[in-house]
Specification:
The complex is a heterodimer of chains A (about 140) and B (about 290). By secondary structure, chain A is of the alpha+beta class. Chain A is built from two helices and seven strands; from the N terminus they run E-E-E-E-E-E-E-H-H. In chain B, strand 4 (about 165-175) and strand 5 (about 180-190) form a beta hairpin. Chain B has helices at about 5-55, 90-105, 120-125, 145-160, 210-285; strands at about 75-80, 110-120, 130-135, 165-175, 180-190, 205-210. Chain B is α/β, with parallel strands linked by helices and about 290 residues long. Classes of the chains: A alpha+beta (about 140), B alpha/beta (about 290).
């Protein structure tokens, strides 16, 4: 491994998606996006929902991730996500349908704020929205 | 001597049974490979989770989280993993027998023992038996998702935090190989932080948002991951057991077909011989 690369591993409960040397990672932390280059201070952060980018040489690759946490050490980044998908794996039509359904569900709820149904509907919307956004942006 | 037609019918019935068992064996073999792969795929996630928990546990006290809190065990919960379908040898039998034994032996030492039953076979078994149940999950059909594990995990963690349960074990068939499965009792709650050698150097992390928040986040998920893992082990064991059972059923069927074919040929020869005798006798008597 040269001096500018470090190891990136992305795992979910059901599979390992990435395990390779990369030069840069940006990921959605719960309190905002963070970027990592080689030699980063050890860092343990909860992930939110959003888009993860990593760069190998000049090639940037993207993933939709949702919940989990990231462990950063000086020479390695491990992403433990509950869900992670490459844009190519996302079915845009299905994701859009899910989004529309979730929005309908949200509208039909009379209560707002902290109720359980409300939070669940919100989570569904966030998830679908993220899939749609990542898929639209990076699907060629 | 059984008559020819009867033997023939039996041969054809055993043959069709054999076709079914060998097809089931093939299906189980494919599912078994998939289940084994799922265990392998899950390993990096589980291992890493444990690493993180270890490093968090080093710097936190037992009172830091309700799921770490030890209480005097009065109300015990067992999460029991059985299968939805039968024809898998002693897979369900051995686990149910073991749980029955546990219930008999430990009934006196605890205030109550209640069960969370996964799988139809376990549910059917305990339908007529007087046991306390606090939950069930069926219709998995070998398609276990992390979401399902999370559902159980959430339920149990909540009960534990609220004091409804003081000690929770998972009972499942641990996967050793296609031929051997072992029933294990795995303590789920309270979570026991891994023992660490105090001299080991661990990384000092910067936490975001903060340590306590991280612990609150990691612990319930660690419980989910443990359950997911037990699910995967149990699924692999089930398919392994079924594969073995179907394999031996297929072999037994071939043996039976061989034996019946021999019997059939003997019977056929015998009837020919006796017909010949009749003809010869008939000819003799006409002379």
């Amino acid at each position: 491994m040269s001096e500018t690369t470090f190891r990136l591993e992305i795992v979910t409960p059901s599979r390992q998606l990435v395990s390779e040397g990369v030069e840069e990672v940006t990921a959605p932390g719960i309190q905002g996006e963070f970027g990592v280059l080689v030699g980063h201070t050890p860092y343990l952060v909860e992930l939110g929902i959003g888009e993860l980018m990593y760069r190998v040489g000049n090639e940037k690759r993207h993933l939709a991730v949702r919940r989990g946490f990231a462990e950063v050490t000086r020479d390695k980044v491990t992403i433990l996500a509950e869900e992670a998908e490459f844009p190519a794996e996302i079915d845009l039509a299905t994701a859009e349908k899910l989004l529309a359904e979730a929005e309908e569900e949200m509208k039909s709820l009379s209560v707002s704020g902290e109720s359980k149904e409300y939070l669940e509907a919100q989570a569904k919307i966030d998830r679908a929205l993220n899939q749609v956004a990542v898929a639209r942006k990076h699907k060629s | 001597m059984a008559n020819l037609k009867d033997i023939k019918t039996r041969i054809s019935s055993v043959t069709s049974t054999q076709q079914i068992t060998s097809a089931m064996k093939m299906v189980s073999a494919a599912r078994f490979r998939k289940a084994e792969e799922a265990i392998t795929n899950n390993r990096p996630y589980s291992d890493k989770m444990l690493d993180v928990l270890t490093s968090l546990a080093l710097r936190t006290k037992e009172e830091a989280h309700p799921l770490l809190e030890r209480r005097e065990p009065k109300k015990v919960g067992l999460v029991l993993f059985t299968s939805d379908r039968g024809l898998c040898g002693s897979f369900n039998g051995s686990i149910l027998r073991s749980v029955d034994r546990f219930l008999n032996e430990k009934a006196a030492s605890y205030e109550s023992i209640s069960l969370y039953i996964v799988g139809k076979k376990g549910l059917e078994y305990y339908k007529k038996r007087p046991v306390e149940k606090f939950g069930q999950m069926t219709e998995l059909f070998g398609n276990v998702t992390y979401g399902q594990a999370h559902e159980i995990g959430e339920d149990i963690s909540t009960r534990y935090a609220e004091g409804e349960l003081d000690l929770v074990y998972m009972v499942y068939n641990e996967f050793r190989s296609a031929l051997t499965q072992v029933v294990v009792y795995d303590r789920l709650l309270p979570v026991e932080p891994p023992k660490v050698d105090p001299d080991t150097v661990t990384t000092e992390y910067i936490y975001e948002p903060d340590e306590e928040h991280m612990l609150n986040w990691v612990l319930p998920r660690y419980v989910d991951v443990r359950i997911y893992r037990a699910f995967l082990e149990s699924t692999a064991s089930e398919h392994g057991a079924r594969m073995t059972a179907m394999e031996s059923a297929t072999t037994n069927a071939s043996e039976m077909i061989d034996r019946l074919t021999l019997q059939y040929n003997r019977a056929r020869q015998e009837s020919i011989t006796s017909e010949l005798m009749d003809i010869v006798n008939g000819v003799e008597s006409m002379k």
